[in-house]
Please model this.
Amino acid sequence: MIEVLLALAVIAIGMTTILGLFPVGLKASRQAVAENSSANVADQMVTYMRVMGETSPPLPADPAINYNATFTDATTALPEYSGLNLSGNTTIDIRENASGTISFNIDDESKKFLDEYKLGEINEPGDIIYEFSRVAQGWSVFVPVMRPSTPYSLRRRVYFIVQGPSSAVMNNVNRVIDYSAMALVWKDTVQIKRLESGGTVWSNWPSDAIMTSGTILEKYQYSGKINIELSWPLIMPYKDRKKRYYQVVINKPN
Model:
């Protein structure tokens, strides 16, 4: 009996140790899936930004038009980083113009989005009945609709992304969410060194003067950068979320 008890004790200790590894393994697996999903989402977002030439379909066929819409067009271009001021890790001041701002609380809006999404109150592109709309037919990427400002005042700045069964289906209630994230997107100027005529002097292009006070057309005459911050999951406060940063340089087509 003593030997049996000892054997059972050894087995119990072993099983307890093994069972204790399951939560660790599951957590690591979920984190790996989230990391992979984030990389895929970032790639999708960059692709979307590169081809999104207008605020509504059909998309123009001219790549130069798409570039201008992303970097230089006043109505559709991405904001520069100065237009995405994070305050207290939860509030974004979206600068619509020189005299006004729109405050956007990340934690509050994330909760609103999840509640609306789970109830199926998500709209097709162009429909602004609810607070969040898809950016494109079939995509599980959504843009907040802020009122009383223009319907897509946050377009190309803040996005919510979800993945899971039927996430691309319209008006599907009680959805299962496998992955949820928020994307902050902004643009930046690419400054390079170039060799002046004669081959002896290096200078910055665009010049430091253009970078400081030049026009938007001068800053983005040849190329621009798209920056994406992904934070997940949405159920967590923004300051506690996992965050990854992605950047891509896009050269203006001739």
Remarks:
- The chain is about 30% helix and 25% strand.
